[in-house]
Amino acid sequence: MRMVDIQRSDIASADRIVRQAELAKILGVSSVTLWRWRQNNKFPAPIKLGSGRMIGWRMSSILQWIDEQEVLD
């Protein structure tokens, strides 16, 4: 897993909601890759924001997912 050079303290707040474009940048992948991972159940499901058309992820679930990937590698 290649993560852009961003320290956990820089993205930290566990309750923070991260939108797809920022998440792709943090993880160093494209939005299409995120979509593909979601379709293959290899990535945490997003939460719906507002009217349900916008989505985002809790930073805590992303950090947990990253930790799990490091264990698997």
TrEMBL record:
Signal peptide: none annotated. It comes from the Bacteria. Transmembrane segments: none annotated. Coiled coil: none annotated. It holds the Pfam family Phage_AlpA. This is AlpA family phage regulatory protein.
